[in-house]
Design a protein that fits this description.
Blueprint lengths: L1 H6 L8 H26 L6 H8 L8 H7 L13 H19 L4 H28 L3 H13 L1 H6 L6 H20 L6 H14 L1 H15 L6 H57 L4 H25 L1 H4 L20 H12 L25 H20 L4 H20 L16 H12 L2 H32 L1
Helix pairs in contact: 2-6, 3-4, 4-5, 4-6, 6-7, 6-9, 6-18, 7-18, 7-19, 9-10, 9-11, 9-17, 10-11, 10-12, 11-17, 12-13, 16-18
Length: about 475
Amino acid sequence: MLKKLFGIFRIQKEERTGAIIALLVFIALNALNVARYFSALSGVDNNTWAKFIKGWHVSGFDPITYSVLTKWTIGYNIYRHPLLPYFVWPFSKLNEGLMALTNTNFAIIITACILVFCAFYAYIFLNRIFWEIIGTRRSEGYVLSALTFSFAYIMLSVLVPDHFCPSMFCLVLTLYLCGLKLQRGRALNWWQTVLMFFFTAGISLNNGLKIFLAALVTRGRRFFRPGYLIVAVLLPSALIWGSARWSYKEFVWPKEVQRKARKEMMQKRQLDRIRQHVMDTIKTKDSAAVAVVMDSVKAGIEKKRERRKTMSAAYKHTGKPMAQGEFMRWTDISTSRTDVAIESLFGEGIMLHEDYLLKDVLVNRPVIVHYRNWGNYIVEAFLVAMFLAGIWFGRRSRFMWTAMSFFLMDMALHIGLGFGINEVFIMSAHYLFVLPIAMAFVLKAMSGAWRKRLTVALAIVAVYLWIWNTALLTQYLYFL
């Protein structure tokens, strides 16, 4: 079973040329990031988080992985990434050993190796989806794979120290396995579902739901069999949620208590200093008189704090929630869905904007940024039209709807409910790879001259996006 499982990672003879080219490209992309930041981030000191958060900036991505690799902690939001700290733990121990031997922090190098591996096999499995599952020609598969990784925030996910590239790798692998099963008239069995859920949900919990969607589409009514539901769905879900709760109680909660205590102590010291200053100023120790002045001072402090909050980019760029609650407060009903779709979802996620280049929405970038010329919108319109045509031509394919279930779930979360809508492009690696999968069905449905023309058009767009996005990325890293 294990031999068969790991056999899919073997590179076939006919794949080697494309695989070598892709590997070199992914190494080159990571080299851009490493060359830019290695000298600033390779020092060994105690203030790791401050160093990384101040020294590394690319859009709204977080350098949490660098910090966790340097000194292992839970680091990530444990409810969103329940097992990711534990997946990173062995690499953290490796980095600790290297730091002890060389007095150099190799977090950025280790992260680059992980990202190259994930991007490389995401590319391999995408090619196999195009060739083996959908049935495109080899040249068409290469064009579609090149197009996928030319998308701006998929390209960025290959080099930034965040979870998006590993997540994409897991999702593409799941689609490939589902495609193989569907070809044979079979479906994901319980252990395959559990295994893919373990890794995918462990990295990013909401993506774990996509594994269940894939199982639902491929298994049909068999998904609801009690034995399968209990063993493959309910039990793994309970275990992964339980692990998140345990991790929070064991590692996160004690630190939050300490942080809250330190904050309260600092506030108390500040108020004590203010109280002493008030007594010295009004030259009285009368508690009632001091209390009146202190109430006024506290109100002034709170007013300044509220003003700073309302003036911050994070506050201004966060829309109105549907309701106030633990989860609903993260929703957004006020941000324009049309503008987001044009400028962010199918805009920034695919082509970087020249203005506010790779700035952070929560710091120094508006939610909506427009392109300077109409050429970008023409490229975007062509890709969206090809995507919609692909949905139509692939409408009778269960594999197509397996892939679309991934896309539609993200659209329901981000565009429907508004979770993360102000920077939806950050999540592009979770769903944009579905666009070329849909386009493959267009090519498959065409024949003769039209098929060649569309393939050439997609190749031209891919080359254009590679030039556009890498040029702007290089400009940001080295010239801004």
